[in-house]
Automatic annotation (TrEMBL):
This is Peptide ABC transporter ATP-binding protein. It comes from Pseudothermotoga hypogea DSM 11164 = NBRC 106472. Residues 1-251 form the ABC transporter domain. Pfam families: ABC_tran (PF00005), oligo_HPY (PF08352). One of its GO terms (molecular function) is ATP binding.
């Protein structure tokens, strides 16, 4: 459960003036065990910052991250970094760029077993675990002695997945895991992630800007705009009945190859410039681009409200 989570980065401006880039602002949602929770939005909307907060790469400005461990709820943001260590294994992240996320000076064996800090494990046992993991991500165990530059992008992402899964995580945060890959390789990596999910009993938070990919893999989807969640719904419901004008525009921007279907869609593409995330005003941040903007939209922040049991939207139209 993320509860009212914010991450504001201080910005130096003129003398005496404090400014903040509000990368994540008052975000709340729950993720259920075993589900794939998609997080979508344009570049710079805060989705990657949110993922990094959950693995404590960044420290939050405020908010709680409640994690159900056995029967207890623990606020992971309130733990000291040393107390957070056991959860570091339970919550793993795989990154967008398989080219820069692997240390070029380390062999694949060293990379995959680097996180196995348990002193009870011998080198032989670690290697056996790495061999098993290589097979599970579709790579040949003989490759363990090779270096990252000897692999393609798709293979490197498989190594990144093996490095995360060897720690037996419960929650895997996938930050744009396929956007740097060729389209044909994207499908292979997505299908691998889907089969590993069942095999390892995983929960995914899947961050992406590509709606087609998120729709394919997610049970529920949250749409982010300038640091805030503007809509959250079941995947099918979101695509069949998008409510927020921004979600509608995002869906309209997905290319449709059939020109007849394209005409039928009847949704205006997104217009105007995205507002600045630095010191944003207390109003709807989509107002400058919204064709339905009203007076109230410039005066108050719309809160996320349930319009149905499984559908929430932050917009004064509802
Ligand atoms: Fe548009 Fe107002 Fe809804 Fe914002 S709150 S999306 S400006 S109608």
């Amino acid at each position: 459960k993320l509860s009212n989570v914010s991450k504001w980065f201080p910005i130096k401006k003129g003398f005496g003036k404090k400014s903040y880039l509000k990368a994540v602002d008052d975000v709340s949602f729950n993720v259920f065990r075993g589900e794939t929770f998609g997080l979508v939005g344009e570049s710079g909307c805060g989705k990657t910052t949110l993922g990094r907060l959950m693995v404590r790469v960044y420290e939050p400005t405020s908010g709680k991250f409640l994690y159900k461990d056995s029967k207890e709820w623990i606020d992971l943001f309130s733990l000291k970094l040393s107390e957070f260590q056991p959860f570091r294994k339970k919550i793993q992240m795989i990154f967008q760029d398989p080219y820069s996320s692997l240390n070029p000076r380390m062999t694949v064996l060293q990379i995959i077993t680097e996180g196995l800090t348990d002193s009870m494990l011998s080198q032989k046992e670690k290697k056996e675990m790495a061999v098993e993991m290589m097979k599970n991500v579709g790579l040949r165990p003989e490759y363990l002695s090779r270096y990252p530059h000897e692999f393609s992008g798709g293979q490197r992402q498989r190594i990144g997945i093996a490095r995360a899964l060897i720690l037996k995580p419960e929650l895997l945060i996938c930050d744009e895991p396929v956007s740097a890959l060729d389209v044909s390789v994207q499908a292979q990596v997505i299908n691998l992630l889907m089969s590993l999910k069942g095999q390892y009993n995983l929960t995914y938070i899947f961050i992406a800007h590509d709606l087609a990919v998120v729709k394919y893999i997610s049970d529920r989807i949250a749409v982010m705009y300038l640091g805030r969640i503007v809509e959250l719904a079941n995947s099918n419901e979101l695509f069949a009945n998008p409510l927020h004008p921004y979600t509608k525009a995002l869906i309209a921007s997905v290319p449709v190859p059939n020109p007849k279907l394209r005409k039928l869609r009847n949704v205006q593409p997104i217009q105007g410039e995205i507002s600045s995330p630095i010191d944003p005003p207390a109003c709807c941040l989509f107002a400058s681009r919204c064709p339905y903007a009203m007076k109230v939209c410039a005066e108050q922040i719309p809160q996320l409200k349930a319009v149905e049991a499984s559908h929430q939207v932050a917009c004064f139209l509802y």
